Structures are given as C-alpha cells and as structure tokens.
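Example record

One chain of 70 residues, shown exactly as stored in the release files.
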Amino acid sequence: MPTYQNRKCQISKAGVQYIDYKNLQLLSKYISKYGRIVPRYYSGATLQNQKKIAQAIKRARHMALVPFVK
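Predicted structure tokens for this chain:
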C-alpha cells in the first residue's frame, strides 16, 4: 500500500500563482481515469491549491475542454 504522507504540493513548488482552466496539461494530472477530481491525499496539493484546481477543472468542463465523464 503506497503512502502519500510525505508528498509535497507540486503547484507551490513550481511557483504557479494562477491555475488557468485552459492549461489542460496541468489539469490532466489532477483528473482520474474516470474523469473525477483527484482528492488531496492522492495529489498532495495544499487546501488552497486544491480548491483552485477544482474550480479550474469545473470551468474547463463547462467550456467543454474536459469531459464530465470519460
């Protein structure tokens, strides 16, 4: 069973200030193979960044850039 306790936030590490809904390469890392948003304990994102990621994914879904279900 893998452990995710020492995982660091990759977004904070890279210094990303704004998570854009058009950046599909970044968003695809936080979407599971079933099209769901990956939870914090898998992604290792901070709470603030996880909320930004979720909002960006939801915006991308409404703009039809990311499917709701795969």
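Notes: The chain has a mean pLDDT of 90.
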